[in-house]
Specification:
Blueprint lengths: L1 H24 L3 E6 L4 E4 L1 H7 L3 H4 L16 H9 L4 E9 L5 E12 L5 E10 L1 H15 L9 H18 L2 E10 L1 H8 L1 H18 L5 E6 L2 E9 L2 H13 L5 E3 L2 E3 L2 E9 L6 H18 L4 E3 L2 H20 L5 E10 L5 E12 L3 E3 L1 H11 L2 H19 L8 E5 L2 H6 L2 H12 L6 E6 H5 L3 H13 L2 E7 L6 H4 L6 E4 L1 H6 L4 H16 L3 E4 L5 H9 L4 E2 L10 H13 L3
Parallel strand pairs: 11-12, 14-16, 16-17, 17-18, 18-19, 19-20, 20-21
Antiparallel strand pairs: 1-2, 1-5, 3-4, 4-5, 6-8, 6-11, 7-8, 9-10, 13-14, 13-21, 14-15
Helix pairs in contact: 7-8, 11-12, 13-15, 15-17
Length: about 575
């Protein structure tokens, strides 16, 4: 019996030595903890991976390895899961003794006691940082262009599919822009492929800056890029982005010692409408790109013929607009402003007109917003101010006499230029008195005005000019708000005047504007007066001035002078 017992002990010792050897020689770190996660023992692989020796962590909480994970309750959460099982497996970030972060492939097993509670935990992990880094590098290599670091064709198609799904869910539109560089082959042939690669990287950078947050830019291959636009409401949004992309290459590319002038052509397809799937949209945008290249450099084409025609008309208008000042195509017409009490002409509002040498007369509703968008409204505004002041000064030399001239300025002119300095230069050049000038601003400018805008308007007033708020009432600005701004005149929007006789709400609104405007010391002008009844309605409520077809349409300079002289001849 004693011999049998000795054999069993020897076998158990042999097993223990085997297990100890396996524990010590294991490539994975092995840490045994008690039921409170206090470290009992750790193997040499643990030291090799973490830098901690076994005696440094013995008795310490194993959570020290995972203190930077979330709220520090990583092991508590694992213990909660282990109450429902005996093992947990996953990945976790940890830190070595040196402080270096690394990624673990971690398995945790739990030994339960007779009551089902945790008795011991065994943690086994390996350093998978390099493997993960290699996997991520491989994924990036498979999905991103190595030259530009943009998504490649495969990832682009996936992003486009996601954009279509999102557009369908959000009930909006998506767009595919196929961008091709014009004449890129010549750069490669003359300057070499190294310079060509640098050009592609610079183009990728500029295109990226031209897009909105949330849009995707990728390289399709060669000298072609794809932009996927999401959350599109109107086609105009696409046109604005396309125009920004085209403009991004207007400045020369500075590559080493070379100044390279480059342009691009863009083909556009929209979803829904130009295809129901990714492949069709890509094919149609590519087809539109080819049409754009055939039409010349630095242009774009929509795939849909109707949209394409509209976009090209707008694009042509933009091109003509940029040369309009140089070709002296702008002119002014003058709509008389009538004093309601006396019936005499008190002045005129100068209105801009454009007669293009190829297209003919163009509606201001078409070209003024485009001029705003292109930034052309700034030089056009300077021209208008000088031309209006010159005409108002000319009235005094031909018997018309000193009449007030009203000049419209856009919000961009006020925000981006010194409007008072622009007016001062025009007054100095023409000799016109500032007291005869009214600068008309929009109600939207008042609503969004900051301290700098107020200072600019005050400087206009300091010159001696007056400030009028045009189309008042459409933006719902309160008159109590207006008292904080240098405003002298309110112009009631024509839409209220048109409905005043049929709509009691519009009538009461006009009465309120006139009464409260007068209480703030302002003059009130009724716009769009077309009938005798509208004229009498405004006059009976004390409106100071009026303009509209009831009195006269906008007139050319010579016709306006004749109108003033004739109206004076009819006065009793």
């Amino acid at each position: 019996m004693e011999a049998q017992r000795l054999l069993e002990l020897e076998r158990e010792n042999a097993e223990l030595r085997l297990f100890r050897a396996a524990f010590d020689m294991a490539a994975e770190a092995v840490v045994v903890c008690d039921h409170d996660w206090r470290v009992l023992v750790a193997n040499p692989a643990f030291t090799a991976i973490t830098g901690y020796h076994g005696d440094e962590v013995s008795g310490r909480h194993a959570g020290l390895m995972y203190a930077t994970l979330g709220d520090g309750r990583f092991l508590d959460d694992v213990a909660e899961e282990l109450r429902r099982g005996t093992a947990w497996e996953g990945e976790a970030w940890s830190r070595r003794k040196s402080g270096e972060a690394y990624r673990q492939g971690l398995s945790i097993a739990c030994e339960h006691d007779v009551r089902g509670g945790a008795n011991r935990y065994v943690l086994m992990f390996r350093d998978i940082s390099e493997a993960r880094d290699n996997a991520e590098k491989l994924w990036r290599h498979s999905n991103y262009d190595t030259l530009t670091e943009l998504p490649n064709r495969g990832l682009l198609l996936d992003r486009l599919l996601q954009a279509l799904v999102l557009a369908g869910r959000e009930h909006c539109r998506a767009a595919v822009l196929f961008i091709g560089l014009d004449g890129f082959k010549t750069i490669n042939d003359t300057l070499g492929m190294t310079v060509g690669d640098m050009v592609l990287r610079e183009c990728a950078h500029r295109f990226g800056l031209a897009l909105r947050k949330g849009d995707t830019l990728g390289r399709f291959g060669g000298d072609e890029f794809i932009a996927v636009l999401t959350n599109i409401g109107k086609e105009d949004e696409v046109e604005a982005i396309v125009r920004t992309l085209l403009e991004s290459l207007q400045e020369p590319l500075l590559i080493e010692a070379h100044q390279i002038l480059l342009s691009c052509s863009i083909g556009i397809s929209l979803w829904p409408g130009d295809g129901e799937d990714v492949e069709t949209l890509m094919r149609n945008s590519s087809s539109a790109l080819q049409q754009a290249k055939l039409a010349g450099r630095g242009t774009f084409r929509f795939f849909t013929p109707t949209m394409d025609a509209r976009a090209q008309a707008r694009s042509r208008l933009a091109g003509e607009l940029s040369d309009a000042l140089e070709h002296d195509e702008f002119s002014l017409v003058y709509q008389p402003v009538i004093d309601m009490a006396s019936g005499v002409v008190a002045g005129a509002e100068a209105l801009l007109r454009w007669q293009n040498r190829y297209i003919g007369a163009i509606n201001p509703e078409q070209f003024v917003p485009l001029a705003e968008e292109m930034g052309m409204i700034l030089p056009i505004g300077e021209w208008l101010t000088l031309a209006a002041c010159r005409e108002a000064m000319a009235w005094q030399g031909c018997g018309v006499g000193p009449l007030r001239i009203a000049i419209n300025v856009s919000p961009r002119q006020v925000q981006q230029t010194d409007i008072a300095e622009t007016l001062r230069r025009a007054l100095d050049e023409t000799g016109l008195s500032a007291s005869l000038v009214t600068v008309e601003i929009t109600e939207s400018l008042i609503l969004g005005a900051g301290a700098e805008v107020v200072r600019k308007l005050e400087r206009v007033r300091d010159l001696g000019a007056t400030i009028a708020v045009d189309d008042f009432g459409t933006g719902y600005a309160s008159l109590s708000y207006l008292k904080h701004f240098p405003v002298d005149v309110l112009k009631i929007d024509r839409s209220f005047v048109a409905e005043a006789l049929a709509n009691s709400e519009d009538a009461r609104l006009i009465e309120a504007i006139i009464a409260l405007g007068h209480s703030l010391g302002m003059k009130v002008v009724g716009e769009g007066v077309e009938t005798f009844e509208q004229q009498m309605f405004l006059a009976e409520r004390g409106c100071d001035l009026a303009q509209g077809y009831r009195f006269s349409p906008p007139l050319a300079a010579e016709r306006f002078r004749e109108f003033v002289l004739q109206s004076r001849a009819l006065q009793p």
